[in-house]
Fold:
Amino acid sequence: MTVKSINYLTVSFALTIFAGAVLNNTTNQEKPVVIEKAINPALIVKDSLASVRAFAKVYKVLMSPRCMNCHPSGDIPLQGDDNHLHTMGPQRGVDGKGIYAMKCANCHQPTNIAGLHMPPGNPDWHLPPAATKMIFQGRTPNQLAKQLVDPKQNGGKNMQKLLAHADDGLVKAGWNPGEGRTLPPMSHAEFKEAWVSWIKTGAYAPSEK
Structure:
């Protein structure tokens, strides 16, 4: 073997060792951090007991008429504190805003209409779109918790977007439903605290009983 060949092998071996060290360093130090930030930046401390307790509060709000009326099992929204089918039978439509001439915005104006049981308003009034219906009606706590964190069912939301969703304008409209309607079972601040706590402790689903 010539000196030239030995030098070539030595350099190649050194480069291989160096590349392995760099790869190992990247794998052990940088990659977990990048993955954690990309997938779940909101999760700080996983605590299944605290998470399930927080979701019990979240579930009470999501099952209230102010939330569930716009998250029905079918394509007709619900109405009233008794969750009856919406009069006139409006349909969800592809974008969740109705079909043909019967659009949600025809009656639901940007703000509440004054008067007892008059249509509540919001600039973006709609049901979830047909592709991601986000059904609340009939869901158990276990089913609903799993659905909420599934990007295939929640409109592609990651944990950071789910955190922000507590302050969505249409979500907050549930606490301003107009005259004659029952409010959710806790304040928006309490709901948001429970929602954030549930997510930041791991977004665990309660077990099925």
Summary: The beta strands are 78-79, 84-85, 98-99, 102-103. The CA atoms of residues 112 and 120 lie 4 Å apart.
